[in-house]
Riboflavin transporter (Sporomusa silvacetica DSM 10669), 192 residues
Amino acid sequence: MHTNMVYMTRVAILASAATILMLLELPIIFMPPFLKLDFSDIPAIIGAFALGPLAGCLIVMLKNILHVSSTQTAGIGEMANFLVGTGFVVPAAVIYRKIKNRTGAVLALTAGTFSMTLVAAAVNYWVLIPLYQSALHLPLEAIITMGRVANPLIVDLKTFIVFAIVPFNLVKGIIISLITLLVYKKLSPILH
């Protein structure tokens, strides 16, 4: 009972930190304006490294549940964040559990970044963009136009995925990974 309470308390604290960080969004140059970098996956990956993949998933889920009340995307953005965040956290946590050293962390974060990028590309292509079209009545051409303003190579859905979604998630994964490498060992004793 005590162990479960400690675990849930740690998850809740990290989810709270992730929720706050989710509110701080930064635009990335050469990206469509609706793709903004937030640092909310840092508490999730720290939790996943310290407490396991389930904790990472719970943190990602909780931050999105807490954020949905202030959404402008009818919950689609939060669903996207959950799917993509889970695509980052789970493989990274699984690898780090097997290799708990700096090399393992680098391998885990690299795998997580590539996994997140692949999940983001697939989910945006087959699920999220069609959902934006139907739920928010946002024409595909409007999405493509927003992408084209940032990058003239974007001319259709496939080029939107290749020149916006993929690079955005690679940049996000690299930034989150570098920050995690800088802070995890300092925070790890607190979480253990």
